């Protein structure tokens, strides 16, 4: 009886996960999480290449989550694959389809580009990237092997419409913990997302927009807010905003490196005020800030990236949260500046 209940729970979750990402239920493979899923895809592609008798070549973007980048870099360091890490830009929000096309080789077995970046929320042009890959295969002719295309959609589900089949991709990473709220089961959360995505998206976009407007309107004169990825070609997921707060005088004189507003310090103060934010850098005890490798990979200057904060809103966030957030942020900045 217990076994049957457990099986039903798993099959219900499988069915709703499948609907949430646009695949058949039989295509869903459960793993321990996104890290294992991304590792599995990279390793599967390498085995695929070996079976084809080629030295596998893998293309990834430089802004991928470490769950993709680290295994790819590890295999490259062992000499098992050739790896191309493509540069992303803030204009594009990700890597461009033309850069992916230019990186392809007859030995390419895998292209892995995340759908929504976890730090900026920027959306990649997956349809354009898949088209570039399939066009390349057609040019090589019928003897060409299929280039596997993977997207890490961990930050996309529940935020933007995702349809793996329409995208024409081979693998997609889904993470339950980015969708499920407290006390929800995976099938319930996915069902809610499938049925209410438009409502959730509109609500999150409204709160995010209010936060960004309030940040601009209430920023004290001696400080400046620099947004990262706010205007990109392919848009952003509605839940995320990423920005740096810098002393205006330092920003204008090109000396942002001397800023005291390293994000670790701000996040610490915000957290004491009950506001959870993610930082774009780690400040070491010696006062040296290490900016987020993802923001630097986007081409953002390290001196600005070291102050970056990522704020995400959820299905339950309210427009009034924007006021409370800005107040807590400016207070935290003043505390850090006067410390
Ligand atoms: C984009 C992205 N990929 C992969 C992961 C890793 O997933 P997990 O923590 O389930 O291993 C995360 C974590 O949230 C993520 O945001």
Automatic annotation (TrEMBL):
Its main location: cytoplasm. Keywords: Cytoplasm, Lyase, Pyridoxal phosphate, Transferase. It is found in: Cytoplasm, Cytosol. It is an enzyme of class 4 (lyase). Pfam families: Aminotran_5. Transmembrane segments: none annotated. Its cofactor is pyridoxal 5'-phosphate. Residues 6-178 form the Aminotransferase class V domain. Its EC number is 4.4.1.16. Belongs to the class-V pyridoxal-phosphate-dependent aminotransferase family. Catalyzes the decomposition of L-selenocysteine to L-alanine and elemental selenium. Homodimer. This is Selenocysteine lyase. It comes from Polyrhizophydium stewartii.
């Amino acid at each position: 009886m217990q076994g049957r209940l457990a099986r039903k729970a798993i099959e219900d979750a499988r069915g709703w996960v499948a609907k949430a990402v646009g695949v058949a239920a039989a295509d869903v493979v459960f793993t321990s999480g996104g890290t294992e899923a991304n590792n599995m895809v990279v390793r599967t592609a390498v085995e695929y290449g070996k079976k084809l008798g080629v030295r596998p070549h893998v293309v990834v973007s430089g802004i991928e989550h470490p769950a993709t980048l680290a295994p790819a870099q590890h295999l490259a360091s062992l000499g098992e694959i050739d790896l191309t890490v493509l540069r992303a830009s803030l204009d594009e929000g990700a890597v461009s389809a033309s850069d992916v096309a230019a990186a392809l080789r007859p030995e390419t077995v895998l292209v892995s580009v995340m759908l929504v970046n976890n730090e900026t929320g920027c959306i990649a042009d997956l349809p354009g990237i898949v088209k570039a890959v399939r066009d390349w295969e057609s040019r090589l002719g019928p003897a060409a092997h299929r280039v596997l295309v993977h997207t890490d959609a961990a930050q996309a589900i529940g935020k933007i419409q995702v349809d793996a089949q329409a995208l024409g991709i081979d693998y997609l990473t889904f993470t339950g913990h980015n969708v499920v709220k407290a006390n929800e089961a995976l099938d319930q959360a996915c069902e809610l997302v499938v049925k209410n995505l438009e409502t959730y998206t509109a609500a999150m976009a409204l709160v995010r927009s209010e936060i960004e407007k309030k940040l601009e309107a209430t920023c004290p004169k001696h400080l400046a807010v620099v947004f990262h990825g706010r205007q990109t070609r392919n848009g952003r997921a509605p839940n995320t905003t990423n920005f740096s707060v810098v002393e205006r005088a330092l920003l204008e004189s090109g000396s942002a490196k001397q800023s005291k507003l390293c994000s670790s310090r701000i996040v610490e103060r915000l957290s004491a005020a009950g506001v959870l934010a993610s930082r774009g850098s780690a400040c070491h005890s010696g006062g040296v800030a290490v900016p987020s490798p993802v923001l630097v990979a986007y081409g953002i200057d390290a001196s600005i990236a070291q102050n970056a904060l990522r704020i995400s809103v959820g299905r339950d966030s309210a427009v009034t949260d924007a006021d409370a957030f800005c107040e807590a942020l400016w207070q935290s900045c003043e505390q850090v500046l006067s410390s």
